[in-house]
Records
---
Amino acid sequence: MVPWIVVSFLLDWRDPGAMGRHMRALGWTSEPELLSAGPISGGNMNAVVRVHLEGRSVILKQARPWVEKYPQIGAPVERAEVEAAFYRAVSGTPAVADRMPRLLGSDPENHLLLLEDLPDATDLTTIYSGAHLTSAEFGLLIDYLNALHEVDVDPALRPLFENRTMRELNHAHQYEIPLSDEREEVAGAKSLKRDPAYRKRAAELGRLYLSSGPALLHGDYFPGSWLRTPRGIFVIDPEFCFLGLPEFDLGIFQAHLVLSAQHDLWANAAGLYRRRLDWQLVDAFAGIEMMRRLIGVAQLPLTAGPDQLSEWLELSRKLVCA
């Protein structure tokens, strides 16, 4: 059973009066009225609302003890505090901070963040249905990881960046649930689930994902976390961040370029990423991410036919078991 949320303020875009009062109480605005508000769709994890004030707009984002898109799935509310810590940790690294919205305020009691709005932004899930990243945008996304993975994290923040409960949630949906569900589905899925070598390697990769590592990771580096804006590419939603192996971020990145037919861009990754990596491990993490996005809970809006889906699952097997 998903637990109830115990807060003094519950974010609801249909109640602008309550939002305005709460923002004034926190000192986030001195304006007497909130003009309008509306939900932002597309994200999975959190309640997100765009708030229009006099002459400006901002974003309110609240973590609740469930996944917003799948309320039957419980999730830790502390992810909001981890996300706030991420913004603070990268604030001294312009190559990261300048590619993200600014954190304008944090209300830990209510697991609520106030973030800069990025008007006219669209997320890059459009690449699954025919849109393309440019080579310049791909370079910016690699440069973001180059800088992020070199961030020197304050030792006082390291325990927070264990982000253990969020990792355990993600671990279940990446490495366990897709391989244990016996429903009839995508062609090739059943043979993959029953492949002992694949399952063994998936378990090993899951243990690596849960282990500690040297770099601060975004943790969910996929097109839903990338925005195309008039100011260029921005990155959002670091609530899955943790200190881990940089190969994980690169593997997630690779998987989504494969699933959006951007193989030509990924061919340049090794020349653009500066840190030494185990590229075979990157491939293996990519293979797992492909599998879970094809047969797991958080499937992608792909238009591919059965033959293509089966081909991708076979590629997942090759990448994981190489």
Note: The chain is about 40% helix and 15% strand.
---
Amino acid sequence: MINTKNETQGILDVENLKMTNDYIFKRVLKSKTKEGEYILKGFLEAILEYSINDLELYSTEVDAFNLFGKNIRLDILAKVNNNLIVNVEMQRSGTLESLGKRLIYYAMMLIGQQRMRGKDYSKITPIVQIAVLDERKFDDDDYLRLFQKADLEHGNILTEIWKTIIIELAKCLTNVQNYCTLKLKQQWMIFIKEYTINTTDERSLAMIENNEYLREATRVMKEIFKDPEQLLLMMAEEKAIMDELQLKNDARKEGKIEVAMNLLFNHVDIDLIAKSTGLSHQEITQLRNN
């Protein structure tokens, strides 16, 4: 077993890292097969259940529209078949409420930043979000859920422009004798949840051998773990990028505070300040009292 240590992360059991690790998840899916296709293609074809002929990876950093917005950094962002934008997120913890709000914000950013000036709204490129959860969130055995904006009473769908798919890895079917008989999406769930470079489960190995994209994902994971020190360095770089993004968002909040202070100085109503800046009434009251 390879244990690697640094000051901020303590001891990391590198050989037992799985794709539930955010960095490994992104690194594997963004890698290419020996034939030059993104491994992400196999994952998306399994989840979306349709053939992908064209796949283009986009930058995952999305800047807010203005001072009062929040910059975001996505796990994976791609355009599929030139007519669909797909955002894939790996989520290890957190409440369902928090996840829902974050996904809604992401979707609104991705829709709002499309260049629509002079175009009809019918030209908006649809968004599909896929959230892969490492925890059980719903009290049933359904491992995949599709959310859309619809009429709760009659079930009429308002628009196809935005869909969210939530996958719960905790519900993957590991109690079957032959993984190869499972649907491709279930095979991916088992692989993400269970596979390490030390896996010896014959069911998993047979499933991997039978699935070209899982074989390639296995190859990439083994390559990643060849140099544990380099892996830690890359994970540290990823953390540094996230820290920088947080600093940018902190700076945006400082800008909001400055605006709120000016409005308070001019005796503007707190309700109006809250609507204008996005700060809470409590935060504004504290500013006024200070």
Note: Residues 1-11 have pLDDT under 50 and may be disordered.
